[in-house]
């Protein structure tokens, strides 16, 4: 199953200058829980935004740079190639960035989305979620608190039958 996982704001903002726009510990925890033990596909810039590779996940990095190499990661030149190197019949998580999400949303099987209840200034966006194609299968609201500056909602979208 191909799963896109992202935290987005009300207007689909996901980042600016290769950085996240918010800090939500419970979202990081959910991301870790869902992706641990799986293959994660990302663009080069998304990978480079991490201080180091994420533990207990197989990283597949899409880059157009011919000699781009990262120790203990798989580097490919296209989304199609990234999906081909993943085991069949296993969950694969696509974790960004904006261009990779745009290329993959039309053949994803599921979306794991955290919606942050705020508008931000951004330069990177998640593609529009087509409500005719996707339906919400799970929804969990989290109010802001001492650890979270914004209200947010976990949403799981599945394809409409």
TrEMBL record:
Enzyme class: oxidoreductase
Catalytic reactions on record: (6S)-5,6,7,8-tetrahydrofolate + NADP(+) = 7,8-dihydrofolate + NADPH + H(+)
One Pfam family it belongs to: DHFR_1
EC number, UniProt record: 1.5.1.3
InterPro entries, alphabetized: DHFR, DHFR-like_dom_sf, DHFR_dom
GO cellular component: cytosol
DHFR domain span: 1-159
Biochemical pathway: Cofactor biosynthesis; tetrahydrofolate biosynthesis; 5,6,7,8-tetrahydrofolate from 7,8-dihydrofolate: step 1/1
GO MF entry, a single one: NADP+ binding
A single GO BP: dihydrofolate metabolic process
CDD domains per record: DHFR
Domain of life: Bacteria
Keywords tagged on the record: NADP, One-carbon metabolism, Oxidoreductase
Function: Key enzyme in folate metabolism. Catalyzes an essential reaction for de novo glycine and purine synthesis, and for DNA precursor synthesis.
Family: Belongs to the dihydrofolate reductase family.
Protein name, UniProt field: Dihydrofolate reductase
Organism of this sequence: Flavobacterium dankookense
């Amino acid at each position: 199953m191909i799963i896109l996982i992202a935290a987005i704001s009300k207007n689909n903002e996901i980042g600016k200058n290769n950085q996240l726009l918010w800090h939500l510990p419970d979202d990081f925890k959910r991301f870790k829980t869902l992706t641990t033990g799986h293959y994660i596909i990302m663009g080069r810039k998304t990978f480079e935004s991490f201080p180091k590779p994420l533990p207990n996940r197989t990283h597949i990095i899409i880059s157009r740079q011919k000699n781009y190499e990262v120790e203990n990661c798989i580097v490919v030149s296209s989304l199609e190639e990234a999906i081909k190197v993943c085991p069949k019949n296993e969950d694969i998580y696509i974790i960004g960035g904006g261009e990779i999400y745009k290329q993959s949303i039309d053949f994803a099987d599921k979306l794991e989305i955290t919606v942050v209840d705020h508008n931000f200034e951004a330069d990177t966006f998640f593609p529009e979620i087509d409500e005719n194609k996707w339906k919400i299968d799970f929804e969990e609201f989290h109010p802001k608190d001492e650890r979270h500056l914004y209200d947010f909602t976990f949403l799981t979208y599945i394809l409409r039958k």
